[in-house]
Design goal:
Blueprint (H helix, E strand, L loop, with lengths): L4 H11 L2 H25 L8 H9 L4 H15 L3 H6 L1 H22 L8 H40 L3 H29 L11 H24 L3 H5 L3 H31 L4
Helix pairs in contact: 1-11, 2-4, 2-6, 2-11, 4-11, 6-7, 6-11, 7-8, 8-9, 9-11
Subcellular location: Cell membrane
Protein name: YihY/virulence factor BrkB family protein
InterPro entries: Virul_fac_BrkB
Length: 271
């Protein structure tokens, strides 16, 4: 008798050491965060929003203590040499792709496959996924900026009520969730060294989208209302909170990959 889906999933979590992989992802996410933000800040002159718009999107999910750390460091770097950032775009993308590269290794472990792609091919794919995620992140930024203007325009032109604006604002956040879902589908589809169909990764992407949104908002609420890491860790409190958030995010992303791997194994038991 085959084990149930949940039993198989829990066995895989223990076998693949998902908590340990999530800790690795948290480390690489931390290393990738600021290079990624710096890259976005570097291209801001060509985009119709400011660095505060970027931070507002991150602020929607990141814990408050971590946002203070992110904002202070980003402001400090922005006061530095802008030319250095421009010349370092390639190095910045390479550094930011480390997080994607770690996700690739985690997914390969979930599917129990060996990474036999050439180093340059594997790293190139990580860089392409990183650039794609930056593009999607920019789209996610544009939705609130232009979405509000579109909503006001429709209200003024057609005479819609205030309730329409509230519904419109809610729809914009639904679209942001769909953007996150699209990013995860790309990751689950392209990252592992195994041929999988786009539709086959939907269960993991859907679970990770819902799980990550709930965990991020719940953890942010907990830190803001019931916890004070600064009293325990002092000036390191913001970093500790940020690492815990990255750890939970990495855990959810890997769980999505494991769900897809379990589904793949059930459909192709001999593979």
């Amino acid at each position: 008798m085959k084990p149930s889906f949940l039993v198989n999933l829990f066995k895989r979590i223990h076998r693949d050491d998902v908590p340990g992989l999530a800790a690795q992802l948290a480390y690489f996410f931390l290393l990738s965060l600021f290079p990624l933000l710096l890259f976005l800040v570097t291209i801001l002159p060509y985009l119709p929003f400011s660095h505060q718009d970027i931070l507002s999107v991150v602020r929607s999910y990141a814990p408050p203590e971590s946002m203070k750390l992110i904002e202070e460091n980003l402001e400090e770097v922005m006061r530095g040499n802008g030319k250095l950032l421009s010349f370092g775009i390639i190095a910045t993308i390479w550094s930011a792709s480390n997080g994607i590269n770690a996700i690739v290794r985690a997914f390969n472990k979930a599917y129990n496959v060996v990474e036999d792609r050439h180093f340059l091919v594997a790293r190139g794919m990580s860089i392409i996924l990183t650039v794609a995620m930056i593009f999607v992140f920019i789209v996610a930024l544009l939705l609130p900026v232009f979405g509000k203007q579109i909503g006001l325009l429709l209200t003024a032109h057609f005479g819609f009520s205030d309730e329409f604006i509230q519904v419109w604002n809610a729809l914009r956040w639904v679209i942001s969730s769909l953007v996150l879902f699209f990013v995860l589908v790309m990751l689950y589809w392209m990252a592992p060294n195994k041929k999988v169909t786009c539709l086959s990764v939907f269960p993991g992407a859907f679970t990770a989208t819902i799980g990550w949104s709930l965990v991020s908002l719940g953890f942010s609420f907990y830190v803001d209302k019931y916890s004070n890491y600064a009293s325990t860790y002092g000036s390191l409190g913001g970093i500790i909170v940020l690492m815990i958030w990255f750890y939970l995010s990495g855990f959810i992303i890997i769980i999505g990959g494991e769900i897809n791997a379990v589904e793949s194994e059930r459909k192709e038991p001999n593979c």
